[in-house]
Amino acid sequence: MDLSRIRNVSIIAHIDHGKSTLADRILEITGAVDARDMREQYLDSMDLERERGITIKLQSVRLDYSGHVINLIDTPGHVDFGYEVSRSLAACEGVILVVDASQGIEAQTLANCFLALESDLEIVAALNKIDLPAAEPDLYAEEIERVLGIPADEILRISAKTGEGVPELLDAVVQRIPPPQGSIDEPLQALIFDSHFDQYRGVVSSIRVMNGELVTDTKMRFMQAGTVHEAGEVGVRRPLITPVKSLGPGEVGYIIAGIKDVGEARSGETVTSAAKPAPAALAGYLEPKPMVFCGLYPVEGDDFSDLRDALEKLRLNDASFTYTPETSGALGFGFRCGFLGLLHMEIVRERLEREFDLSLIATAPSVEYQVEKVGGQIIEIDNPSDMPSPGEMEGIDEPYLKITILTPSSYTGTIMELCQGKRGTLQNMEYLSPERVELVYEIPLAEVVMDFFDQLKSRTQGYASLDYDPIGYRRSNLSKVDILLHGEPVDAFSMIVHKDVAYEYGRKMCEKLKELIPRQQFDVPIQAAIGGKIIARQTVKAFRKDVTEKLYGGDITRKNKLLQKQKAGKKRMKSIGRVEIPQEAFISALKLDD
To answer: Using CA atoms, how far apart are residues 263 and 265, in angstroms rounded to an integer?
Structure first.
């Protein structure tokens, strides 16, 4: 195909600014989907995406428009899925930057725009939702020009809902975004930017050809994995999958090679010809660094191997989470998983339960700490149960974030109060306009992962937006709180917290467990401890069997003898008794912050 006729473009925006709705209108205008088959969020294929109304996975589609081929990628907007955005940008020459005409620039608008600028991509900006009564396109066009440097007269006005202005947007994409570079005579170089596992066909990989030609039924080499496979089917998504004979430079499509081992076709892999291989692999992607960790355990111990297979297949589709096996005295065998954020953790857990029919328990989320031991050795810890005893440690460093909050100026006071309560320090405050302010804070990651985002939204009635970047580790006054049942520590309830809130966490956890643990034949003390020091305690009282029930009247000594015998039996039971904790107790106790 003539390279000058191809345009590769991603849609980027803040969450809820109308990316998926715009993709729907583009599908309609280009005739890719019949009107009778059209539905909202057409490209969002997962049930979870449709239920929550958010995009979780990037989706690519090939469209024909006025003699040109547009390869369009719809990307997620939430900060936890920023890795999906960076992957899609590697397959494009330009982006459509969508901004809500009633809300203006938000935190993820800035973050995604800077990602596109770093990748040296052409930006076509569009103000969406101009049909809303609250829309102020002229005001926000000036704001975009002032903050992002995109001339106001180049910013298009569109309504993704009604379709107004969308044909002009497609014309601007054709005119402004450069065609891809590449040569069909060079050896084949193609980048895998996404993959998923189909149980009938094996691994299905989304691919962007940089140089050369990918032809059906030829042998290909996967350069990082070092394996050779035959291209059983090469095709494009229109958006239904359509097999083609070959894909040339600049084209985007998919490839099926009957691969059953999911490790062989990961995102960032370079595909080349086995007969005439390319001299070097493409740059691929930086490995994302997990920020939030939790343990995932099957409710039924027999499901451990199923969970391992499910994690391996899901990691193919979502390369941004990690997992390693771990054992818990309370929960048995499971995996320590790392995620990019709390929403990411929630989505992965829900996908495992739905797509692989598993029933899981997730432990409380934690972050990765650096512990300096006596003698200078530094170890990294993402599980509170691995923390050395206080006497073995010189200090603990915790990860910090630089967070950017964009908010209407009337909420500035309540946001500052929230950030200071979470140990944040103000770095910068700038008014983007008289009504909107940008706040920049440095804050511990552990404070953000719990309930920061929920509180931010509730305190600002949903108007504030948040973006964050890691900025390294800092020394903090932290301690590990252990929960002991009957003198035995339960690792699933351990938590690393700041010393100022350690007592509060211990007290709350003891009170909650007192409600959740059923009464036993003996008193069960529930204690919170830091090192060897008990900081809080509750007791689940024993239930008492009436051993004198069968007696009537007669000598009191007979009654006392039976009671003393019961007392001695309970004492013996207490010394050897193991507390039974129901699964519901784990699930409910770990939702302590609710």
So the answer is: 6
- Residue 381 maps to a domain: yes
Residue 410's SS3 state is helix
* pLDDT exceeds cutoff 90 at 30: no
Question: Which positions ≥6 away from 240 have C-beta within 8 Å?
Answer: none
Distances (CA, A) of 185 to 188, 223, 224, 270, 540: 9, 20, 23, 18, 77
pLDDT in tens, 183-212: 888 888 998 888 888 878 888 888 889 998
pTM of the complete model: 0.74
Last residue of a domain, one of 133, 148, 176: 176
E strands, 244-359, are: 246-247, 252-256, 270-273, 292-298, 322-328, 332-339
> Could you give the CA distance from residue 111 to residue 106 in angstroms, rounded to a whole number?
9
- CATH code (residue 307): 3.30.70.870
Q: pLDDT per residue over 485-523, tens digit each?
A: 878 888 777 888 888 888 988 898 898 888 888 887 778
Q: Above 80 in pLDDT, residue 281?
A: yes
Peptide bond into 408 cis (omega under 30): no
